[in-house]
Amino acid sequence: MKGPERIETERLVLRRPRPADAGEVFARYASDAEVTRYLGWPQHRTVDATHAFLEFSDAEWQRWPAGPYLIESRDGRLLGGTGLAFETPWRASTGYVLAKDAWGRGFATEALAAVVAVADELGVRRLYALCHPEHAASRRVLEKCQFVREGLLQRHGLFPNLDADEPCDTLCFARVLRGVPSGA
Fold it and tell me: Exposed, middle or buried by CB within 10 Å (0-12, 13-18, 19+), for 16?
């Protein structure tokens, strides 16, 4: 079973990325030092890095039931990205990133709720997200979407945009889903 390549919510459209999106993804959020500060992937220094991400995204969509999504407003303005990163057919991680002008408007919560619903429909039983301990806004989004803080993973993750050469402590939040594929 494959996940939808396009999801519509009240205010948003989540859609599978295309190669033609590279310039806009780079300009809107992937190259922004403030936006990428607490992310587990490095800020894109060139649009080639964004092209590489889009190639990775396509490979994930081919290998698994779903993968990364771009987040757009209903009028087509790119706001950010989210998605599912499968580890097994029943376990996946998620996350989100928004351009600065989209912060504080509930878009991350709305997009994450849609991703949770897709994960549940695809049979995911455990959906988790990792978060830097100082990223309070991200923690609030996860809690609003009923993710439970499972613990602090000591010296677990690299946050390449924080100028840290050593692994940092990382918070782990998770949701256990019904995980019953549609039609089952």
Answer: buried
Give residue 143's domain range: 6-176
- What tokens does 165 get? 């050469």
Residue identified by tokens 């928004």 is 98
CB burial of 108-135 (b: ≥16 within 10 Å; e: otherwise) equals: bbbbbebbbebbbbbbbbbbbbbbbeeb
The whole-model pTM stands at 0.94
**Any domain includes 29:** yes
Mean pLDDT, all residues of the chain: 95
Counted domains in the chain: 1
The CATH code of the domain that includes 122 is 3.40.630.30
The answer to whether 86 and 94 are in contact (CB under 8 A) is no
pLDDT tens sequence across 70-87: 999 999 999 999 999 999
Encode pLDDT of 8-45 as tens digits.
Answer: 999 999 999 999 999 999 999 999 999 999 999 999 99
In a domain, 183, yes or no: no
Phi/psi at 151 (5° precision): 160, 180
